[in-house]
Amino acid sequence: MQTVDATAGFHALTVRESAEHLGTDPSGGLTASQVRDRAGRYGPNALEPPPGHGVLWRLVSQVRDPLVYVLLVAGVVTAVFGGYPDAAVIAGVVVLNAVIGYVQESRARRALDALARMVRTHATVVRDGLAARVPAEDLVPGDVLELAAGDQVPADVRIVEAHLFEVDESALTGESLPVAKTTGELPPATALADRVNTAHSGTMVTRGSARALVTATGAATQLGAVQRMVATAGPVATPLTRKLAGFSKQLSVGIVVIAVLTFAVGLVRGTGVAEMFTAAVALAVGAIPEGLPAAVSIVLAIGVVRMSRRRSVVRNLPAVETLGGTTVICTDKTGTLTLNRMTVTAVAAGGRTVDAGNLPDDPAVRECLTAGVVCNEAALSRVDGLWSAQGDPTETALVPAAERAGLDPAELRARHPRVDLVPFEPERRLMATAHAGGVGYAKGAVEEILARCDRELRADGSTGPLDAAAAHRLQREFAERGLRVLAFARFRSGEEPLAALVDRGGWTFLGLQAMQDPPRPEVAGAIAACHSAGIAVKMITGDHAGTARAIGRAVGLADEPVVLTGAGLDELTDGELPAAAARTTVFARVSPGQKLRLVKAFQGAGHIVAMTGDGVNDAPALRRADIGVAMGRGGTDAARDAADMVLTDDDFAAIESAVEEGRGVFDNLRKFLAWTLPTNIGEGMVILAAVLLGATLPIVPVQILWINMTTAVFLGLTLAFEPKEPGLMTRPPRPPDRPLFTPALFRRVGLISLLLVVAAFAAYRWELGGGASVAQARTVAINLFVAVQIGYLFSCRSLEHPVVRAWPRGNRMLAVGIGITVGLQVLFTYLPAMNTIFHTAPIGAGAWLRILAAAVLAFAVVEADKLLWIRLRRYTAGTPGTRRRPNRR
Ligand SMILES: Nc1ncnc2c1ncn2[C@@H]1O[C@H](COP(=O)(O)OP(=O)(O)OP(=O)(O)O)[C@@H](O)[C@H]1O
């Protein structure tokens, strides 16, 4: 691989010199053979992944945990006191823990890498004289790029043409204000941050558009240089995992205190130091849910995988869980609720409205269509003898409309070479171009264009005074049919730069073009599903109120959507906004800044907000929303960069399924917690109770370690694979402030913990009373403990509903996990080697029957508890005033 000499300093060269140096043509770009040749020479335009740590380092880093230190100390002390088998078991637990952690970490890393690859950036490149979208990876030095607002700059470039072009370079220089870029050469000594005629890989275009030459790709870019300097980021920590880690830390501290007390009590009672030490350690190790953080990331990761199957890529793990709590979805219209496949269906010019399939050849219609083709940033290319346009669908739709009227788009553009441009911006809602010969064209929202016009073009080609009322009336008629309307105008562009002219006025109105953008067929169903899930859906669009209302009705947002416009929004105070926003279903003519205000208003009212956006200016609102959702196809790199979730085919229905998955994930997390906590607490309490009562231990420390390690993995984790419960999307969203551990959950945990302790002691005593040896009695107690865990596991498949009635759908992992656990318990009971290590002994059939009975009993107790609570809740729900939840919609 070879790199263009970075010291060449393209900023100090003129545009011509730069192009010569790079062996390229700024207007036509490289040829196909040049691209092939350079691709071989320079390699792909990608940064090599930073060197990862070695396997050994990552394995060892797994055991850098206070808990493991406690275990290791325990193991050493046990060995010193001569308990070699026990010490070996402890060592085994440490190794197993490290391996599981290592495997989990590698899997999570691989999954995130794969997801990152799914949201690749693309770039518009001119090659052989034609513009095309290619993956940013395929760029080579000398390529000619078209950059527009919202794009990520895909390589280091020298700018050769700029229109109000501004770049956010904060990722590279830390400078937070966008930098305006120009084309003229600079003194060679200019510092990197001041080179305003170049732009660098990894920065974002915030405004305008530009043409630029690629000067460096991949590792040769400034970004590549920075990456080599900076060490890589640490492990993936998320607010949720942090919250849970905090919880388990508190729990650990509490448990260690109890363990120390137990130790002290044992010593006072005269038990041997060595025995008490291992007992205290076993208590601690048993009671600490070591598997919790791993389980949480597994549940979340499974959620991420399930969502990716449903066409949404989650960019960070906790987003999955937040999604489940969504109470309001704010969605834009074009491309998300609609297909973003625009077709011009009618043209109104020269005082009449005509069907686009049947356009008359009069000067007014022709001029309106011409404006649509030349004041247009879509790229043209010949496909099978016909012109086809690539770019923003609003713009590409204008090309075939002109063609159908017999105009040649390429010829029109050749006849009116563009000399200046004010690009479209959502705040301004119009774009304008200046052309050779002193004529300017503009297109945009009807009210914006009309505000700048005082004359209009008549059918015969003469101009007369503007009839703005008639134009507004037409706009309303089109809008009522759900059509999107663009207005066109012409003006004199002389010496002055276009940017100064766009707000000057004195324009001539040319007419309107109305386009159809059909609703996506799956959207109505998805919106209905959101409604029945208690989630409010709001449309926030830059489009006209009438069009927005009609589309809102068509997709079932409401029978008669309440509409608020951006202007109306500005009149409301921050105090009035939340109530008004709650009433409104359609927000029209809204600017990105107003979107941000809406997100804040909803959040202020206690909502969890999911918000979609596609433009560069949407990034702040996407960042602010609890879940920012960006479009994979139509959206800009800037929006994707700010979002938590990317919809691979821009479809609203994917949000609905993502919410459903999110709810499922939250459920499964609670199920796992509900199962694992009593297990741990029960284990700890068995030892605590034995020591306090001065009784012999029904289960000894190594045995606790055994139970802990096998059941956490083979039983607990299977709950991560639970299918979603039916009715997930017919219940209201979980209140945002509801904690993970509800009182009901605590009660259940207490009940099962108690059950486990009582059962272990009862079994132990019963077997001893029946003449069994201590080893046998302990073996029965352990098997019974595990059996109760299995019975309870079944019950945890649904926390609120009786399992039998709740759903017939299976969880194959559950069956596999239980199978493995039973197999291991059989070995544990009958394998002589295991008997030696774990101090167990074979037991008889009668004991197994009693064990089975205990499992069934545990299951029955929890199921009865559920039924009781359902009854109780029904009873309280029957009391007046508590019957219905307030409807959020
Ligand atoms: N390329 C363009 N050139 C000129 N005017 C445009 C262009 N695209 C859109 N407009 C005008 O600006 C208005 C707002 O467009 P914007 O892109 O902000 O929102 P939208 O695409 O209609 O809706 P949404 O926000 O739902 O995606 C449009 O209604 C149209 O009148």
TrEMBL record:
Cation-transporting P-type ATPase N-terminal domain mapped to chain residues: 9-83
Primary location class: membrane
Gene Ontology MF terms in the entry: ATP binding; ATP hydrolysis activity; P-type sodium:potassium-exchanging transporter activity
SUPFAM superfamilies given in the database record: Calcium ATPase, transduction domain A (SSF81653), Calcium ATPase, transmembrane domain M (SSF81665), HAD-like (SSF56784), Metal cation-transporting ATPase, ATP-binding domain N (SSF81660)
Cellular compartments per GO CC: plasma membrane
Membrane topology: Multi-pass membrane protein
Gene Ontology BP annotations: intracellular potassium ion homeostasis; intracellular sodium ion homeostasis; potassium ion import across plasma membrane; proton transmembrane transport; sodium ion export across plasma membrane
Localization annotation: Cell membrane
Alphabetically ordered keywords of this record: ATP-binding, Magnesium, Membrane, Nucleotide-binding, Phosphoprotein, Translocase, Transmembrane, Transmembrane helix
Recorded catalytic activity of this chain's protein: ATP + H2O = ADP + phosphate + H(+)
Gene3D superfamilies from the UniProt entry: Calcium-transporting ATPase, cytoplasmic domain N, Calcium-transporting ATPase, cytoplasmic transduction domain A, Calcium-transporting ATPase, transmembrane domain, HAD superfamily/HAD-like
Family: Belongs to the cation transport ATPase (P-type) (TC 3.A.3) family. Type IIA subfamily.
PANTHER family for this protein: P-TYPE ATPASE, SODIUM/POTASSIUM-TRANSPORTING ATPASE SUBUNIT ALPHA
NCBIfam families: ATPase_P-type
Name of the protein this chain belongs to: Cation-transporting ATPase F
